C-alpha cells in the first residue's frame, strides 16, 4: 500500500446556500509532483483548492495535512508548510517587488523575530528563482502581467513551504507568458521537489507540464491520475461536452486535444 500523501481530501463536501459545490470528494496530491485540477466553469476547482488550503471551510469530510485534519492545526504551523496563491491577487498601490516577497516571510516571524538573516536569504532565493533579482525595488504597478505573476509566485516561494497551491496562475496571460510561468513552476518542482497543485483551464498545457490530473465534474471527481490515463476522448466528452480527437504531442508525447 502506498504511503499517505502529505495533503489529501477525504469525503469533502462544501455548500454555498442551497448549492452543493463539492460533494463527498476525495483526492490525493502526490508528493513531489505537479498536479492540475481541471474541469468546466463552476465545477468546484477553485473551491477545492481553497479547501485544501483551509481558506474555505468544509461542510462535511476533512482535509488531511501531514496525517492530521487541517482544521484542527495551528494557523502559523499550516502556513509554514503550505502556501497558496489565490486567483487575481491585489497588492497596495506603490508596493515594491521586495516588499511583496518579504510578506511571504510572515509565518516565520513574530513580535520578537522580524526581518532576520534567514528572511533575507529566503527573499533573495525567491527573487533569483523567479528571475526578478535586480528588479526588487521596482513597483508592482510598473510590471507586465507576466512579471507581476512571477512576483506573486516569489512571495509564495519566500514562504518556504514544500506545498504550493496556485489558483489559475495563467489567467490574463498571453500564451508566451503562460509557457514562461509553467516552465518556472516545473523547474521549481524539479529543483526543490515541491509538491504543486494548480487550477488550469488549458488541457493541453496541463498535460504537458503536470504529472497528475484531477478532472472534476459537478463537484465530483470524474477521474484522477496520469495525464495519459485521464485525458481521453471519453473524459473530454463527459466532463467538457467536447467531441475531440486525442493525439500524442509530437514534441512531448503527452496527450493533445484536437476539438472535432
From TrEMBL:
Question: Which intervals hold domain ABC transporter?
Answer: 7-243
Q: Which PROSITE patterns match?
A: ABC_TRANSPORTER_1, ABC_TRANSPORTER_2
Molecular function per GO = ATP binding
The UniProt keywords, alphabetically, are: ATP-binding, Cell membrane, Ion transport, Iron, Iron transport, Membrane, Nucleotide-binding, Transport
One Pfam family from the record: ABC_tran
Q: Where in the cell is it found?
A: Cell membrane
Asked if the Swiss-Prot or TrEMBL record annotates the protein with the keyword RNA-binding, the reply is no
The highest taxon in the source lineage is Bacteria
Indicate how the chain sits in the lipid bilayer: Peripheral membrane protein
> What Gene3D superfamilies does the record point to?
P-loop containing nucleotide triphosphate hydrolases (3.40.50.300)
Major site of localization recorded for this protein: membrane
The protein, known as: ABC transporter ATP-binding protein
Amino acid at each position: 500500500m502506498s504511503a499517505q500523501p502529505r495533503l489529501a481530501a477525504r469525503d469533502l463536501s462544501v455548500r454555498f446556500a442551497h448549492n452543493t459545490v463539492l460533494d463527498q470528494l476525495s483526492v490525493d496530491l502526490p508528493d513531489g509532483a505537479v498536479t492540475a485540477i481541471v474541469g468546466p466553469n463552476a465545477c468546484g476547482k477553485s473551491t477545492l483548492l481553497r479547501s485544501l488550503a483551509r481558506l474555505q471551510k468544509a461542510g462535511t469530510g476533512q482535509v488531511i495535512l501531514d496525517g492530521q485534519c487541517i482544521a484542527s492545526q495551528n494557523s502559523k504551523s499550516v502556513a509554514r508548510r503550505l502556501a497558496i496563491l489565490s486567483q487575481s491577487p491585489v497588492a497596495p498601490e506603490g508596493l515594491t517587488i521586495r516588499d511583496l516577497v518579504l510578506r511571504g516571510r510572515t509565518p516565520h516571524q513574530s513580535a520578537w523575530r522580524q526581518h532576520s538573516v534567514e528572511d533575507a536569504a529566503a527573499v533573495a532565493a525567491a527573487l533569483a528563482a523567479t528571475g526578478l533579482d535586480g528588479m526588487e525595488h521596482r513597483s508592482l504597478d510598473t510590471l507586465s502581467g507576466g512579471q507581476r505573476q512571477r512576483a506573486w509566485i516569489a512571495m509564495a516561494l519566500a514562504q518556504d513551504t514544500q506545498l504550493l497551491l496556485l489558483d489559475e496562475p495563467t489567467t490574463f496571460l498571453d500564451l508566451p507568458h503562460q509557457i514562461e510561468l509553467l516552465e518556472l513552476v516545473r523547474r521549481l518542482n524539479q529543483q526543490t521537489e515541491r509538491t504543486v497543485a494548480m487550477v488550469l483551464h488549458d488541457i493541453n498545457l496541463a498535460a504537458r507540464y503536470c504529472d497528475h490530473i484531477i478532472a472534476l465534474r459537478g463537484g465530483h471527481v470524474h477521474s484522477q491520475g496520469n495525464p495519459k490515463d485521464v485525458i481521453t476522448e471519453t473524459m473530454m466528452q463527459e466532463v467538457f461536452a467536447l467531441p475531440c480527437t486525442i493525439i500524442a504531442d509530437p514534441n512531448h508525447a503527452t496527450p493533445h486535444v484536437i476539438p472535432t
